[in-house]
Amino acid sequence: MNPFPIVIKPYGAFAVLIEWPPRVEESILDDILRFTEYLKNQRILNEGDWELVPAYNSLLVVNDKKQVEFKMMKSQIENWYASKDTVVLPQKYLWRLPVCYDEEFGIDLVEVSSTLRLSVGALIDLHVKQSYTVYGIGFLPGFMYLGGLPKALEVPRKATPRQKVQKGAVGLAGKQTGIYPQESPGGWNIIGNCPIPIFNVALKDPCFVNVGDRIQFYKISKAEYDLHRIEGEVGIYKMEKIKIDA
Amino acid sequence: MLKLLKSGLYTTVQDAGRFGYRHKGVPVAGVMDSFAAQKVNMLLENQPEAAVLEITMTGPTLEFEEDTYIALGGADMSVGLNNIPIHNYTVYKIKSGDTLSYLKLNYGFRGYLAIKDGFKSEVVLGSRSLFKPVTSVNRLKDNDQLLYTVYKSFQPKIQKLKVDSFLDDEVLEVDKGPEFDLLNDKHLEGLFNKEFTVAPENNRMAYQLNESIPGHEISILTSATLPGTVQLTPSGKLIILMKDGQTTGGYPRILQLSEKAINILAQKKAGDIISLKLPKKSSRI
After folding, report:
1. What share of chain A is helix, strand, coil (3-state, %, to 5)?
2. Taking CA atoms, what residue in B is nearest to A22?
3. Per-residue model confidence as pLDDT tens digits over B37-49
4. Residue of B nearest to A17 (CA)
5. Which among B211, B209, B212, B239 has a CA at the least distance from the CA of B227?
6. Cα(first)–Cα(last) distance of chain A, in Å?
7. Interchain CB contacts (distance < 8 Å): A and B
8. CATH of residue A186
9. Is the pTM of this model over 0.90?
10. Does B156 map to a domain?
């Protein structure tokens, strides 16, 4: 059974792009992830140099070395999509990440709270209240595109981007919230900082989060921040994760 | 060890690229001009993924501490081995204590220095390509040292290679990108009926072009991008992603450069002229 009409497009000589309807919807993301899992187990794709990059309503299928023959690949993917319904979604996790919202880190917190006509406390309460779905990872290594921000927290990007946003900075911009995994230039409103490294090249999987997982923030003090930061640096911080039932 | 007495403007270690981590947001990186890098590695009978030095515009001054063999390629640069001029795509024997000085860029933008068996720098996530923040630095600095294997003797099958250089080429062959069909006639006219100049904002992440085409209000959800993807901003600016380019983006991906076009563009600098060409009958559409 095919719940969604998909479109398969050529994308240069080495890749094809599969598109689902252009909506931010968990049922679409789940279908993409289920199909990604299915493709990983196809003999043709689990050997050699293929990479699969899911995000929001699309899936990139790219070969690192060999050119893709589009017509053949397209009909192959159509056949696969039509027969994928038995595949189980890979296990998803909810990751609980600590955030210190002290003024030292939440450098735009006061300004944002006045723009949104919320008290700082109410803003933080709203930010930690719900979990956010990871719709994609990109822009920077380990940068998560998170969906599900409450309307009350939607605030425009800063008019002038900062040259340097701190590693771990937690920000708000439009319909999005997220963490800067590394120091980088950026235009998001910074409301706190997460002491846990999101991207670590020393690990075989440098980023523990996968597309489809959920993130929930919780508020910590400066003292806890300092402790978790050291734990994170020496690699003894224990991640809080909860299995999400399919 | 290879000592960088002077590092030059932007000298970096690159190999064929860092694959397998795009879904975690890691750009593939790797040599910008893969054609030139493959040729110099081939001359030394190296693995295609052997790490080379990528040398941009103003080259370094280098001192070799052990015997080995090298080959240069890519941009046309005046280079002296112990002050004697040497040439691209030729194997040279290096003796302990030899110095290599890059004097002047004549043509092109990025030169490559391959060494027998490749540079043995740190491997991070399966690749030696420098890319911050995956590696701690993007490029080498004065007095840095690079490890390589000692070779006292090596009989290359080919001493010198005649290479059809494309440093003169200005036409970039492109395919239609995923959002190509959303463009109107004015966009197409702007893209294919005029020349563009490379903007000062050009580096390993992306090349911007000075001239704009008409703007648009096409909105897409963030989706995967590739090296060679031409993005169109709402104001009509063209941004061509290169090897260090981000793995996802939110601008319409209107065109995709061929592998050869990426290599041609990698040899262009600010002010250089290029044009875009869509094959009359694209086999992939």
Report:
1. 25, 30, 45
2. B221
3. 999 999 999 999 9
4. B178
5. B239
6. 18
7. 124
8. 2.40.100.10
9. yes
10. no
